Amino acid sequence: MTSPASHPASGTLSYEQAGVNYDLIDPLKVAAQRAAAATGAHLAHHGFSEVAASRGESAYVVDVGPFYIASIVECLGSKALVADEMNKLTGKSYYDSIAQDTIAMAINDLITVGATPLVVQAYWAAGGSDWFSDAQRAKALVDGWKRACDTCKVAWGGGETPALAGIVADGRIDLAASCTGIINPRERLSVGDKLGAGDAIVLLASSGIHANGLSLARKLVERLPNGYLTEVEPGVSYGEALLAPTVLYSPVTEALYAAGVKPHYCANITGHGWRKLLRHPATLTYRIHSVPSVTPVLKFMQEHAKQDDKEAYSTLNMGAGFALFVRAEDAQKTVVVAKAQGIDAIVAGVVEAGPKKLIVEPLGIEFGDDALQLR
Amino acid sequence: MTSPASHPASGTLSYEQAGVNYDLIDPLKVAAQRAAAATGAHLAHHGFSEVAASRGESAYVVDVGPFYIASIVECLGSKALVADEMNKLTGKSYYDSIAQDTIAMAINDLITVGATPLVVQAYWAAGGSDWFSDAQRAKALVDGWKRACDTCKVAWGGGETPALAGIVADGRIDLAASCTGIINPRERLSVGDKLGAGDAIVLLASSGIHANGLSLARKLVERLPNGYLTEVEPGVSYGEALLAPTVLYSPVTEALYAAGVKPHYCANITGHGWRKLLRHPATLTYRIHSVPSVTPVLKFMQEHAKQDDKEAYSTLNMGAGFALFVRAEDAQKTVVVAKAQGIDAIVAGVVEAGPKKLIVEPLGIEFGDDALQLR
Predict the structure, then answer these.
(1) Nearest to B129 by CA among A371, A348, A12, A22
(2) Which GO cellular component terms, listed alphabetically, does the Swiss-Prot or TrEMBL entry include (chains A, B) (predicted)?
(3) Which of A288, A342, B188, B225 is most buried, by the most CB atoms less than 10 A from its CB?
(4) Dist CA A296 CA A208 (whole Å)
(5) Distance between start and end Cα atoms, chain B
(6) A3 and chain B: CB distance < 8 Å anywhere?
């Protein structure tokens, strides 16, 4: 890892320079994953079993007999810091969008295994009781949270609203969501055993940066003449554009099932950008022949961070928020179903026999087997 | 509410003075609860329904047909700050205990509705990547988390380990756990409809402060000559005593079901201390004829905070971590089953027809209907 100080201010800005050091987190992650894996056997005590293939996937799945239960907890990350800065500049509260982002982090992961999200729990840990005294902001958070639940047809079960002075920074809030769903009928289980050569790759449009890459986005603002108010396109500031809420994809996965399409695999494109297309453990080549148009704020970020395509696509979603791997004959139908839910989609590529590799043909870039280490 | 400044340093120290202002949190809570309640109807879209009586209880319950699913997310609170201070003083890491506390917050709530906990997810949000570089501390957290999962026979499904510089305070960690369980068979559902006059109240022993009342405990340390190293009893410091891990009660509730005892109601005694015995919405009188022995650290806190019994029992668990309301004829059996799991228990009282009231006869104190507003 290179330290930020060794680069001139105008140089390339990578994710590590923006302050997230995965080298320090990963040893703990590995230890935690090993310890966690050893606990799966406890389920036998209750007459159940884990779906071992879900370890390393985006949600954990338990076989309870008539169906499967999937569960997850997900963090918003640092996007709320952008909302706080923009609030200072515009007086508006963006916490309705932030609420949707938080729920999307959980829901969009949960659905990758074929689950229907049923219950969301809210985790809103504030830096002190006074966070909640801003009535406009608190109302926006509640309203946005409810609206996202309505969109996904999930029940908001409850949650926690602790005031954690000394742990959460003063004036800030740490937002997360947990989600429980079921995979019903059982044949909806999607943990990758069906993925194979010949499958089509359908990419669903993102709305912008979603909630990954925000450390980079916040670092970049230091380079902009008008900071968050710098225009990304006429009439749209960088801050506003960043705060476009993350797309909720569960209406698409539910509509697909209703239309008879059962994805062979799904990948939520979050941290690590398009490298997430390499998530499946199998040795397969993913050949992309069409890329979606890049959301203006992401194009803007790429330019100002002076990233080449390889770096940009390995960090940001670049217009694609969710990938569906479906039978070739279901590809067009998948696009039609997504569009009917108001979410743009394209048939972007194909899965081929071959070495583990992602080839983005229109851009002339490739990512190999070593590009993503999640397990 | 009275401000801390209006009391001399040697005066009575209440929970509000210790920095938690429930008046500011509650309006948001009420708005969130209303919005959440309106989302329960979404479950019909999936062919399911919520158990409406679980709204306002400690875990949210969905009827999925063959059984019920319960879910929850819970925060540790500020106990990790004590571990951090004690680490400076002793060089030891207490994060194995802290891990158990965090899981206990979720599990002990989930089991109140009759659920068997199946999956725990970890939410470990650090103030920066470097939190994870203290290998001893990170290992303690992982080991303690796994051990608590082993005790409760739950699968550790996974979780989130974000580095949230600027949101979580530098050098700190925000810990929470989500938990999903099932209520199986359906007759184990316990949302209070069976509670009635004549039921016995069995109290299960706590190990100390557990993870509620820590703001008060931390404030109190300013009054102690040797701070956290002040002895609570010979050879045991205040800090060590506070860090006794919260008892995990699910082995007791599982053993009770195996022994044929189905509680009519359960209350996890957390914030609001014994006022949690008034949690059930019915108009009933709870008459306590025997109180458990008070854990030394809680006795110590009561003395140094100069609290009378009414204030102490309305804030701290005072030796009782969990309440089981059972048929009178099951009371002794409940005690025997708990003790067989290594957890002390007493038949403490009885439920009577009468106004909503908790009468603690041995101490001559009462709490009325207005003592607890959770719904």
Answers:
(1) A22
(2) cytosol
(3) A288
(4) 8
(5) 21
(6) no
CATH fold, domain B51-188, is 60s Ribosomal Protein L30; Chain: A; (3.30.1330)
CATH architecture of A49-188: 2-Layer Sandwich (3.30)
Q: Are B371 and B278 in contact (CB under 8 A)?
A: yes
Edge-first strand listing for the sheet containing A345-353: A265-268, A320-326, A200-205, A345-353, A284-288, A357-360, A365-368
Q: What is the interface pTM, i.e. ipTM, of the complex?
A: 0.93
- Bridge-based pairing of strands B155-160 and B116-126 is parallel
Buried b (16+ CB within 10 A) or exposed e, B264-278: bbbbbbbbbbbbbbb
Fold match, A49-188 / A200-371: no
**Per-residue b or e along A7-45, where b marks 16 or more CB atoms closer than 10 Å to that residue's CB:** eeeeeebbbbbbbbbeebbeebbebbbebbbebbebbee
For residues B38 and B54, give the distance between their C-alpha atoms in angstroms, rounded to a whole number. 14
B5 at interface of A, judged by CB pairs closer than 8 A: no
* A109–chain B nearest CA distance, Å: 12
Three-state DSSP at A207 gives coil
Q: Please give the order of strands across the beta sheet that includes A116-126.
A: A49-50, A60-63, A68-75, A173-183, A116-126, A155-160
Distance CA B173, CA A182 (A): 31
User: What is the C-alpha to C-alpha distance for residues B150 and B153, in angstroms, rounded to an integer?
Assistant: 5
d(Cα B61, Cα A157) in Å, to the nearest integer?
8
Rounded Cα gap, residues B99 and B175, in angstroms: 8
The CA distance from B365 to the nearest CA of chain A, in Å, is 29
Whole-angstrom distance, CA of residue B186 vs CA of residue B164? 41
pLDDT tens, chain B, 375 aa long: 223 333 334 566 665 566 556 666 677 888 899 999 999 999 999 999 999 999 989 999 999 999 999 999 999 999 999 999 999 999 999 999 999 999 999 999 999 999 999 999 999 999 998 898 899 999 999 999 999 999 999 999 999 999 999 999 999 999 999 999 999 999 999 998 999 999 999 999 999 999 999 999 999 999 999 999 999 999 999 999 999 999 999 999 999 999 999 999 999 999 899 999 999 999 999 999 999 999 999 999 999 999 999 999 999 999 999 999 999 999 999 999 999 999 999 999 999 999 999 999 999 999 997 776 554
Instruction: Provide, as residue numbers in chain B, all residues whose Cβ is less than 8 Å from the Cβ of A140.
Output: none
Q: Which single residue is written with the structure tokens 């705060």?
A: A243
For chain B, domain boundaries: 51-188, 200-371
Note the residue count of chain A: 375
Q: What letter does residue A294 receive in the DSSP assignment?
A: P
Specify the amino acid at residue A105: M
CATH 3.50.50.60 is held by the domain A200-371: no
> Which of A58, A98, A164, A219 best tests the B interface by mutation, with the highest count of B CBs <10 A?
A164
CA–CA distance from A267 to each of A3, A29, B304 (Å)? 31, 20, 56
Q: How far apart are CA A167 and CA B19, in angstroms?
A: 13
Strand A357-360 relative to strand B49-50: parallel, antiparallel, unpaired?
A: unpaired
Instruction: State the DSSP code for A282.
Output: S
Report the helix count and the strand count for chain B, using DSSP H and E.
Answer: 10, 15
CB of B159 within 8 Å of a chain A CB? The answer is: yes
Cα angle B104, B107, B113 (rounded to 5 degrees) comes to 140
